[in-house]
Amino acid sequence: MNKFYTSRGDQGKTDQIGKDRLSKSHIRIQTVGALDEASAALGFARAQISDPAINELIKTIQMDLYRMMSIVVQKEPDLEKIPDLEPGRVAWLEEKIDHYGSLTDSPREFILPGENLPSGAIGMARTIVRRAERDLVSLAEAGMLFSETALSYLNRLSSLCFVLELFCAQNPPSRTENPS
Fold this sequence. Notes:
The protein is mainly alpha-helical. The chain has one domain: Cobalamin adenosyltransferase-like (Hypothetical Protein Ta1238, Chain: A, Up-down Bundle), CATH 1.20.1200. It has five helices and two strands. It has a two-stranded antiparallel sheet. The relative contact order is 0.16.
């Protein structure tokens, strides 16, 4: 039988890459937690959306977020072991923002999240991505961020989430009408 607990965190410490242990309240661990929440929220949104292209887009973003978590948790940069996100990833997000933005009407007033389940789920993911971005800024201000791309990536990701929220609100996927 697999054992899914170690008891190593019972004293409020957790492991990080490099064999050191950190307090679970350390900004590095807090940031990894926020990125993990963002990935989980995007996964929840993906489960609500029937559009295969958006599903694949979100899966790719989730993989990028896991890579970012590995970068953030490093005590010192080891780009051979865990390379930074390529700068082209930011341009890729911008292409996706432009694509879905071209399919979406610009709002003329404040939008309320939750027009339907998919748009509400993406809206929730957007707010969590923004929190992760704030935590990443704190990590950078403390001199502990070893990524040239992470901040720009999360900034664009929150914009993409906003555009996808609008897109889903204006183009309700069929799964909201007939849940499986």
